[in-house]
Amino acid sequence: MYFVYSLLLGVAAIALTPYWLVQGLRHGKYLSNLGERLGFSFPSLKQVSNPEGSILLHAVSVGEVLSGISLARRLKENYPDRRLIISTTTITGQALARERMPFADAVIYFPLDWTFAV
Q1: What pLDDT is stored for residue 117 in this prediction?
Q2: For position 32, what pLDDT does the model report?
Q3: What whole-number distance in Å separates Cα of residue 39 and Cα of residue 116?
Q4: How far apart (Å, rounded) are the C-alpha atoms in residues 77 and 111?
Q5: Which pairs from 93-96 meet CB under 8 Å and 24+ separation?
Q6: What is the average pLDDT across 96-117?
Q7: For residues 24 and 35, is the Cβ–Cβ distance under 8 A?
Q8: H helices within the chain, ranges in order?
Q9: Average pLDDT over the chain, rounded to whole?
Q10: Which residues pair with 56 in a beta bridge?
Q11: Phi–psi pair at 44, nearest 5 degrees
């Protein structure tokens, strides 16, 4: 079943590539964080010394980032020995998470759901 899911996701990605390319060139979307989305580089994870046992909190965009701030803060307070990694999907969510959650150990873009990326 996972094979079918991955195959359909790959077909959709290929079909949407022209759209993403045009949006990336016209509006600066998608291309700036493509390395993170494909799992090739996570610059902010380099500062996380021991990612094993980390807590990952995913917030898609601005609304979820705002509603997750108190949860993230409490997680960091209750589990100080664990790294807190915040992932977002949108550029605005990413900017807000970096601004409002300076206590997080890393803020990354959530990678695409492919085995090699995750």
Answers
A1: 56
A2: 73
A3: 7
A4: 27
A5: 93/59, 93/60, 93/61, 93/62, 93/64, 93/65, 94/33, 96/62, 96/65, 96/66
A6: 84
A7: no
A8: 2-27, 34-37, 62-78, 91-100
A9: 84
A10: 85
A11: -75, -15
CB 24 within 8 A of CB 55: no
C-alpha to C-alpha distance for 93 and 87, rounded to whole angstroms? 9
Q: Which residue type does 60 have? A: V
Take residue 13 and report the two structure tokens written for it.
């990605």
pLDDT at 72: 97
Residue for token pair 């803020």: 107
Q: Which two tokens stand for residue 41?
A: 């580089």
Mean per-residue pLDDT for 13-29?
82
Report d(CA 110, CA 108) in Å as an integer: 6
